[in-house]
Amino acid sequence: MKPNGKKRPLGIPTITDRAMQALYLLALEPVAETTGDPNSYGFRPERSTADAIGHLHQVLSLPTGAEWILEGDIRSCFDQISHEWLLTHIPMDKRILHTWLKAGFIEGSVLHPTEAGTPQGGICSPVLANLTLDGLEAKLRELYPKRTARSRRVKVNVVRFADDLVITGNSKELLEEEVKPLVEDFLRDRGLSLSQEKTKITHIADGFDFLGQHIRDYKGTILVKPSRKNVQTLLRKVRGVIKANAQAATGNLIGQLNPIIRGWATFHRHVASKQTFTKVDNAIFKALWQWAKRRHPKKPRRWVKDAYFHQVGGRNWVFRGERTDKNRQPYKVRLFYASQVAIQRHTKIKGAANPFDPQWEEYFEARLGVTMADSLKERRKLLYLWKEQGGICPVCEQPITQLTGWHNHHIVWRVHGGTDRADNRVLLHPNCHTQVHRQGLTVVKPRPSRDD
After folding, report:
1. What is the DSSP string of 340-407?
2. Would the pLDDT of 417 be above 70?
3. pLDDT tens digits for 201-211?
4. What is the tens place of the pLDDT at every residue in 273-310?
5. Would you state the torsion angle of the CA atoms of residues 195, 196, 197, 202, taken in this order, to the nearest 10 degrees?
6. Residue 146 burial (C-beta neighbours within 10 Å; 0-12, 13-18, 19+)
7. Mind listing the pLDDT tens digit for each residue in 380-404?
8. How confident is the model at residue 84 (pLDDT cuts 50, 70, 90)?
């Protein structure tokens, strides 16, 4: 069921079919990454919504940034892709692909054939969709080549996440008369079209929503905040959980709410979300206060406050409760508030970066190191690796400290099938890491001594 109430046919492949799709995906995904658009971010390894938003913020924040935005939405993208186009252009066994595309779906014990679209529910569907839509950015660059006077004048940039795309331009007329027709022609060859209801051209001063964020010019500064619709969806979900647990134990209610709130706040931690986090916390606090008051209508406000809320830091009130572990031992829990998540700027991935290309192995390992340093869980892994090798770099046999810095190195490169597990990683000095990759040196994981 889509958010607009429409239904989408969903065919769940059998285990055998899923295994076959996974096998072909191992060969198809590197091709898709090599030929993909630089600024396509949906359903691609090592890329995320934060990268898409980060690039869009960059191009709009430049002194020469565009003021007009084409918000494009492809109508029923996964349902309408032309089978003929896929069979002609997708680089894989045509017989197998034809079988996937024509498999159909069963509803009410009736088999419905599929005449268009990618396999709904199949793990290969996102990659097939990306391969279909890749090339749009190159089409635009043919018309507006980079680093030319024409390109600097028109300010055309494209950011795509799956079937949602945003194209910037210096005027409404340019986007309406040149860019939009080009996009429609590109999609028409693939059996697709733009949704006239959702596709619109907006001025940056009015702002627009993209991937759950609201992007707008605030008196000369481009700010990205959680969109109002996204916040309302969160609060509606939270209130639904609270209402459905009117008589539940406090600890159990907290156990259901915390993953929802934490996940939402973590998603928005890369943008200007602090004020929104505070507003969300206040709204949730009020909903929980009403929940507690309804449970004890005859109790005074102070009694309710003391029973359910605990003051932290002299002024912050935390909703608290008690749960039991698997051994039925009680332990205290408290509600997770969105404002507990620190705002942390995201470093956008380079457009040309390819996780399947050995030349980019060092780059992705450096990004992994940044991710590890920013995560408590990953810092524990860092500490484990550092202790495991006695704080010594296995290449130069000199100490690794905060002053020297470190890089993560995969003993078996990920492009060769290596994993991110600790038994396949060592910490190296940045210079030593560069030498290993440049000179093709072999690194052996240090073994702890018997004394250790």
Report:
1. GSPP----PPPTT--TTSGGGHHHHHHHHHHHHHH-HHHHHHHHHHHHHTTTB-TTT--B--TTT--E
2. yes
3. 999 999 999 99
4. 999 999 999 999 999 999 999 999 999 999 999 899 88
5. 110
6. exposed
7. 888 888 888 888 999 999 988 878 8
8. very high
**Tens digit of each residue's pLDDT (9 = 90 or more) over 158-201:** 999 999 999 999 999 999 999 999 999 999 999 999 998 899 99
Question: Token digits for 290?
Answer: 């009403």
Q: Which two tokens stand for residue 233?
A: 């969806």
Return the half-sphere exposure (C-beta side, CA atoms, 13 A cut-off) of residue 429: 15
255's enclosing H/E stretch is: helix 250-267
DSSP secondary structure, 57-98, as one string: HHHHHSTT--SEEEEEEBTTHHHH--HHHHHHHS-S-HHHHH
- Side-chain-side CA neighbours of residue 200 (13 Å): 10
Greatest alpha-carbon span in the chain: 77
**If you write DSSP's letter for every residue of 271-284 in order, what string do you get?**
SS-HHHHHHHHHHH
CA distance 204 to 181: 21
Is the pLDDT at 9 greater than 70? The verdict is no
DSSP three-state, residue 40: strand
Q: Look up residue 320 and give its two tokens.
A: 């608290």
Worst-scoring range by mean pLDDT, 9-18, 23-32, 244-253, 327-336? 9-18
**Is residue 254 helix, strand or coil?**
helix
Name residues whose C-beta falls within 8 Å of residue 8's C-beta, 6 or more positions apart in sequence. Answer: 1, 2, 78, 79, 120
Residue 173 CB partners (closer than 8 Å, separation 6+): none
* Residue 375: pLDDT band with limits 50, 70, 90: low
For residue 132, give the nearest of 157, 152, 162, 106 by alpha carbon: 162
pLDDT band for position 324 (cuts 50, 70, 90): confident
* CB crowding 259-296: b at 16 or more within 10 Å, else e: eebeebbebbbbbbbeebbeebbebbbebbbebbeeee
Residue 134 and residue 81: Cα distance in Å, rounded?
13
**Helix or strand or coil: residue 238?**
helix
| Encoded tokens for 4 | 């607009």
Please report, for residues 159, 167, 210, 252, 293, the alpha-carbon distance to residue 69 in angstroms, rounded to integers and kept in the order given. Answer: 11, 6, 11, 45, 47
Provide the terminal-to-terminal Cα distance of the chain, rounded to the nearest Å: 57
pTM: 0.85
- H, E, C per residue of 136-187: HHHHHHHHCCCCCHHHHHHCCEEEEECCEEEEEECCHHHHHHHHHHHHHHHH
